[in-house]
Automatic annotation (TrEMBL):
Keywords: Signal. Pfam families: SBP_bac_6. GO terms for biological process: thiamine transport. Residues 1-23 form the signal peptide. This is Putative 2-aminoethylphosphonate ABC transporter substrate-binding protein. Gene3D superfamilies: Periplasmic binding protein-like II. GO terms for cellular component: outer membrane-bounded periplasmic space. InterPro entries: ABC_2-AEP-bd, Ferric-bd. GO terms for molecular function: thiamine binding; thiamine pyrophosphate binding. SUPFAM superfamilies: Periplasmic binding protein-like II.
Amino acid sequence: MKHSLTRLLRLCAAAVPVLGLFAADAGAQSKTPLLVYTAIETDAMKAYKTAFEKANPNIEIRWVRDSTGVITAKLLAEKANPQADVVLGLAASSLALLSQEGMMLPYEPVGFSQLTRRYSDQKQPPAWVGMDVWGAVICYNTVEAKKLGLPKPETWKDLTKPIYKGKISMPHPASSGTGYLDVTAWLQMWGEAEGWKYMDALHENIAQYVHSGSKPCKQAGAGEFPIGISFEFRAHQVQRSGAPIDLIFPKEGLGWDIEASGIIKNTKKLDAAKKLVDWMASKEANQISSTWWAIVAYPGVAQKMEGIPDNYESMLVKPNDFEWAAKNRDRILTEWSKRYNAKAEAKGS
């Protein structure tokens, strides 16, 4: 039986309007429309769509886009009557949950053997196939910190020091995949007792839990809060835009997840769905991913990014058990919300 939190999320998700749905153009009647649910950053949606449709002119991607938590809840709410054909760019921890619920169609795409195996589902054939890795980072506004006399933190545990009280924003783990990868990393790194103890102490210094993994770094860049817990792609983008932030990669290790793709079982567009998943496994798609991500599934394609350390991949927390994170999602989010939800940002803010 699902916990009340998941039931609430499902009800909310069912009421969420379709976001980011690309309308068919006048000449699209002869194309196969493929309904694709995604949590990828809007920066990437157009690039993937344009390149895929150029290679597959008889297929049209129609996006439904929202945050990881909302898309996950929406898919679960639609379990008895699935609407999506493909899930693209959703967190592996969410796709593992959908797979456990029997909603994913195992499929090994063309060219799968070329990809880094540990960044996809370990079952054979895989229920989901990795695109790229995203990991935790702290965004630290050097100008605001100097004004406030805030030292530069070096570790996760530094963030519990009283000097940072009210100065930190973090993603809400029920809404944001980045927030959830932080929470599950701390619980795996330190064990559950110490992990919750750490989050209790961190909570004392949190100003706000926001419903986006990007927003804390944007807030830090704008000086709204001097410190934001975010992820490396957005941190790199904010820094490149000229914001006075340093990127901090805490020494204990970085929580991380994988953006991945998979086919929804019982899709009526199976051939088109396979073509999209095949294409997402291609070198071309991975080259597009490497525009934003420091680690992609296709070896040798990733580019060096300013501000991202050369040993970034080795800093990722290991092991990172996505099956455990999926199986315990309801329990973890229920406990987290009971303890910390009082500081959650209002929806729609």
